[in-house]
Amino acid sequence: MPESREYPLLAVRRTSDGVLTVTLDDPDRRNAMTAPMTASWERLMREIARDEEIRCVVVTGAGSAFCAGGDLGWIGAEPGAPVEKLRDKMLPFYRIWLSLRDLPVPTIAAVNGPAVGAGACLALACDLRYAVDTATFAVPFTKLGMHPGMAATWLLPEVVGMATARELLYTNRAVSGAEAVALGVFNRVFPAGDFPGEIERIASDVAAGAPIAVKLTKQALIGDGHESFEAALRWEALAQPITMATEDLQEGLAAQRERRVPRFTGA
């Protein structure tokens, strides 16, 4: 499927293997989360959630940045507004962008450049994060004089642990490259020349899994995973038999016997 221009400020491309790539496409504003882009994102996320053919979603940015975060002009537009009014403005914004976490399929942040503030949180909201080795990640909320938003105080500890989250949120410092990988911010980084091909390969590998099995695995790994070892056993004792009753299991076993690539259908 060719690239779609149906969603203002988003470029959407779908490939035959079920990978859908969403590019934040406002490079002159470093892909900031403006109101028009937010409206497009809301509509697109609703449509992706209903599409049974999508097996993996990749989020990336156009130009030199992944996402500069919220539109600072919009954020600072009402300095004298009551707290309640601002709260009612921010909460829907958070929920729209973080609806990415509710998608039933795996999501990948392909961080092609700086991911800052709410843009960093968008990357954290994805299941996997890969970056060019020069990409920076920063959550400089207090440097701007405001409390973290976009679930930063949940997402960052979830990904990197509380000690590192405290350091990054208190100091506002940016991390990149090998350090970002060591901290757990990114799964891996790649040289810029290799980045597009590596992302395509990884997304294809994710999309190649049996759809029912992958969706159930994502459910098992949400957040910090199961509340206990016993809960994990009980979940797996239910989820694994569900997949054992699928046509895809028989296809996977046949492909292994015949030493070929399986052709999963989600049945």
From TrEMBL:
<dbReference type="InterPro" id="IPR014748">
    <property type="entry name" value="Enoyl-CoA_hydra_C"/>
</dbReference>
<dbReference type="InterPro" id="IPR029045">
    <property type="entry name" value="ClpP/crotonase-like_dom_sf"/>
</dbReference>
<comment type="similarity">
    <text>Belongs to the enoyl-CoA hydratase/isomerase family.</text>
</comment>
<protein>
    <submittedName>
        <fullName>Enoyl-CoA hydratase/isomerase</fullName>
    </submittedName>
</protein>
<dbReference type="Pfam" id="PF00378">
    <property type="entry name" value="ECH_1"/>
</dbReference>
<dbReference type="GO" id="GO:0016853">
    <property type="term" value="F:isomerase activity"/>
</dbReference>
<dbReference type="InterPro" id="IPR018376">
    <property type="entry name" value="Enoyl-CoA_hyd/isom_CS"/>
</dbReference>
<dbReference type="InterPro" id="IPR001753">
    <property type="entry name" value="Enoyl-CoA_hydra/iso"/>
</dbReference>
<keyword id="KW-0413">Isomerase</keyword>
